[in-house]
Design goal:
10 helices, about 75% helix, about 200 residues, Tetracycline Repressor, domain 2, about 0% strand, Arc Repressor Mutant, subunit A, mainly alpha
Length: about 200
């Protein structure tokens, strides 16, 4: 019985993630969630008290999927600016092209002005901006890069990378020639890195 309850909660989370990422929080009803799981609404309420509590659980599950802390710990070991930016960009593109539903949730929450939009942003995109800003500050303190507004650089670089992830998922086919993610990384990372480095000719 206990395992069945866990499995049912997992099913509800999976279906909710799919529905929220396909239509947005506002458009999804408890009835739709229950039907997608093949259960009644009262049965769904035995696991979650409201649609908002389901959405919170979806966000918690996504946060666990992201595992950014583990990635950032590994990236802390990369001490060259260009190598760090390359690994940073490759990770984002690889992860979000394989997990398109997460990016869709981010877009829907922002466009619809959901009350949890800030949490969704901080969790999905803001964590990368914050990390990169801190790394750039450290590179500057170590005398490796020139003085710039590192927060602006972190936002712009992260934005470029996320846009690339969009181009190979949600926007594919809209922009003419489709470039492979590794082509974008190899083209753009050196531009950013060499614009930051000291004593570049």
């Amino acid at each position: 019985m206990r395992n069945g309850s866990i499995d049912r909660k997992t099913q509800i989370l999976n279906e909710a993630t799919r529905l929220f990422s396909d239509a947005g929080y506002d458009k999804v009803t408890i009835k739709q969630l229950a039907e997608a799981c093949g259960i009644t609404e009262p049965a769904l309420y035995r696991h979650y008290t409201s649609k908002e509590s389901i959405y919170d659980a979806v966000l918690d599950a996504i946060e666990a999927r992201l595992s950014v802390d583990i990635f950032f710990e590994e990236l802390d070991k990369v001490n060259e600016v260009e190598d760090m930016l390359r690994s940073f960009a490759s990770h984002i593109i690889t992860f979000f092209t394989k997990n398109e539903d997460i990016y869709r949730l981010l877009l829907f929450s922002a466009l619809r002005g959901h009350s949890k939009a800030k949490r969704v942003y901080q969790m999905i995109r803001g964590s990368y901006v914050k990390y990169l800003n801190q790394r750039l500050d450290k590179f500057y303190d170590d005398g490796k890069i020139i003085k710039k507004n590192n927060e602006i650089t972190a936002r712009c670089f992260t934005g470029m990378v996320f846009d690339c992830a969009l181009s190979v998922t949600l926007w594919r086919g809209f922009q003419g020639k489709l470039y492979k993610p590794e082509e974008v990384v190899e083209n753009n990372v050196p531009i950013y890195a060499r614009g930051l480095l000291i004593n570049q000719k």
